[in-house]
Amino acid sequence: MSQNILITGAAGYIGGSVLAAFISQETGALCTATLHAAVRSDEQVQALSKLGINIVKVDLDDEGAVRDVVLNNKIDIVVHTATSILPRPAAHLITALGERRKATGGHAYYIHTGIATMYSVEGGWKDGEVRDTDAIYEYDKEIEGMNPARQTSNVVVEQAAIHGVKSFNIVLPQIYGRGTGEWRKLSVNYPAFIRTSIEHKIVHKFDVDSNPPATHISDITTLYTLLTSACLQGTPISSGRSGYYFAVAHRAPQYLVMDLLARGLHERGLVSSPTARVWPSYDAAAKALGWPALYIKAMGTFSGELIPVNPGKVGWRPQWDEKRFLENIDEEIDAVKELDTVKSTLFANV
Fold this sequence. Notes:
GO terms for molecular function: aldehyde dehydrogenase (NAD+) activity. The protein is of the alpha/beta class. The chain has two domains: 4-175 and 214-246, Rossmann fold (3-Layer(aba) Sandwich); 186-212 and 251-303 and 319-339. 42% of the residues lie in helices and 16% in strands. The protein has 14 helices and 14 strands. The protein has helices spanning 13-24, 42-48, 63-72, 87-104, 136-142, 148-163, 189-200, 217-233, 254-267, 282-289, 296-301, 310-313, 322-327, 330-339; strands at residues 4-8, 34-39, 54-57, 75-80, 109-115, 129-131, 166-172, 174-176, 204-205, 213-216, 244-246, 250-251, 277-278, 305-307. The strands form four sheets. The chain has a seven-stranded parallel β-sheet, sandwiched between helices. It has a three-stranded mixed β-sheet with strand order 8-10-12. Strand 4 (75-80), helix 4 (87-104) and strand 5 form a beta-alpha-beta unit. Helix 3 packs parallel to helix 4 and helix 4 runs parallel beside helix 6. The termini are far apart. Mean pLDDT is 94; it is low at 344-350.
């Protein structure tokens, strides 16, 4: 029997690329599934209409509207990429899935999109290595001064347990590479650095040489594909409190990355110096990059020792490593020059 999948944030960088990956599948369980895409504007509906799937405009903060979308379209699986920091949309989606599950007597699945920054000292996490097979939910509950992304992750686990929905949390590091969706094709971090560097004619770096985890967008979409396929086939995989999946492929040494970007931008005549300089302050960095001042230090300097275990259990084998990333860093510059046409709304609610 065909199952119905709803992808939220389908006009975004992650959601659009995931949707494109699902559509491109020629074999396997996804070929028999019916895809539905949730977006926020009429313009986005029009942009995605060429895909030949059901595109719905919905306010995910509206519980009734979310319920109608899930129940009217008989959604069995939700892949939620629209936001990692707002608990209400996640709760609404899970509640509706629970109602759908009760009506059919079958299973319902919710795949969340989390943020790796939370699992670093800078993000309020404990020091040292953390595996996605550790008791993450229990540790998260003990942390005071909870940030929105952590709160949302906890809501996912709790609401899914209440409503009998199997939940999964794909925790994303810094992501790079050209998106394959129909609307937004650029990630957040590196395009922001490049865009700001061009505007100010100089590349800046933070006062800490961090070494954050990173993954190419194609490897990210592969993990979503594998996890969703496992749900479609009813494969028993870790979920709920054990359902964290660290989508970490390699490290991205920031001082080296910034120097490579400075060199590449200088060679193109876009900045005045081939070397990066330290930001005068975190406030200045937040203002220039358009990032929340409250989280700028964590976003700009976190490293974190995230060890992925669960992704390998579903067959995830990243194709991009640190060497390949650094050798192709100029592609990030070219992508911004060619594709920087849609303003990011990631921090609109922060």
